[in-house]
Specification:
Structural class: alpha/beta
Strand order of the largest sheet: 2-1-10-7-6-5-4-3
Distance between the termini: 35 Å
Oligomer: single chain
CATH architecture: Alpha-Beta Barrel
Shape: globular
Largest sheet: 8 strands, parallel
CATH superfamily: Divalent-metal-dependent TIM barrel enzymes
Radius of gyration: 20 Å
Order of helices and strands: HEHHEHEHEHEHEHHEEEHEH
Number of helices: 11
CATH class: Alpha Beta
Helix content: 40-55%
Length: 301
């Protein structure tokens, strides 16, 4: 090997090592929803917070955990089990019902009970998707209900801020019906300092008739509020088993937009399976590959 070749090879090795180091430093979490969908497909029961689940997540190289917390009893022993498996819980998801004034009082109180316990173990973001009239149903909220829901989000965001926690609004596809009036109202009628945005690009894409035009228009309007990113990819409208940069969602374009605006939201894998998804690998193998692809896409963050 001559000197020029040696120096070139050494430089490439240094770049490769730096890239690998950056990937190890990059914190990427997983939401529990995908793990439940893989378990259902395999005909298995799924339980959150168990040593078995944490060991499986840790074996993929993922370092973060985002569960759906429904009761404060779920925190019993949770911090110790997370530490045992080398996992952090920087965010969590809570259910909420905020379009009815009386129900919203109970829902906000329940979310705050969860938040107080969450703050003790370092949670910084609470994600919520205000419940529809009926999950999976065709009913749309009235204007009065949308006004109530936005006010409730502001109230919850304000109370969480006192605890050092940021509220992130999340949507599914139903909020994009009727001219996306629910989606738009939640992000125009709420205080940007109290209610941030958990962007799930695929739900916007699907809710707008599989439209990237609508997705990137929405990002142009509300991207400045994105504090968390749920990562999911599909091909020809169906969720894949593995998160990939390329597919129905142009994730490199999304990442470039975030870079341009100096934003580095919390990254959470939510690559689930549904009817029509490929069935070629188990949940651990799929998440190992999803992590590798996400780390490559967001290397340097």
């Amino acid at each position: 090997m001559n000197r020029r070749t040696f120096l070139h090879t050494t430089a490439l090795a240094a770049v490769s090592a730096a890239s690998a180091a950056d990937s190890r430093k990059l914190h990427i979490a997983t939401n529990t929803y995908p793990w439940g969908t893989f378990a259902k497909r395999a005909g298995k029961d799924f339980v959150q917070h168990t040593d078995e689940l944490f060991a499986a997540i840790a074996s993929t190289g993922i370092t973060g955990y985002e569960p759906n917390i429904r009761a404060i009893a779920e925190f019993d022993g949770l911090a110790e089990r997370l530490q045992k498996h080398g996992l952090e819980m920087r965010s969590l998801y809570v259910n909420s019902l905020l379009h009815d004034a009386e129900a919203a009082k109970t829902s906000i109180a329940s979310a705050l009970d969860v938040a107080r316990k969450a703050a003790e173990i370092g949670v910084k973001i609470i994600v919520t998707n205000p419940a529809p009239i009926r999950w999976g149903g065709p009913e749309d909220k009235t204007d009065a209900q949308l006004l109530t829901q936005a006010a409730s989000l502001n109230q919850l965001g304000g109370e969480l801020k006192k605890l050092g926690i940021t509220l992130a609004y999340h949507n599914h596809d139903s909020e994009l019906r009727q001219g996306a009036r629910e989606f738009h109202h939640m992000l125009t009628a709420t205080d940007a300092e109290l209610v941030k945005f958990c962007l799930d690009a695929h739900w916007i894409f699907r809710g707008c008739g599989d439209s990237q035009v609508a997705l990137f228009d929405a990002i142009g309007h509300y991207g400045s509020r994105v504090i968390e990113l749920h990562l999911r990819q599909s091909v020809s409208g169906k969720w894949g088993e593995v998160f990939t940069a390329e597919g129905d969602i142009d994730h490199p374009r999304l990442k470039a937009w975030l870079d341009q605006h100096g934003m580095k939201p919390h990254l959470v894998l939510e690559q689930a399976v549904e009817t029509g998804s490929p069935d070629t690998q188990d949940v651990v193998a799929a998440h190992q590959k999803s992590l590798k692809n996400a780390a490559a896409l967001f290397a340097g963050w």
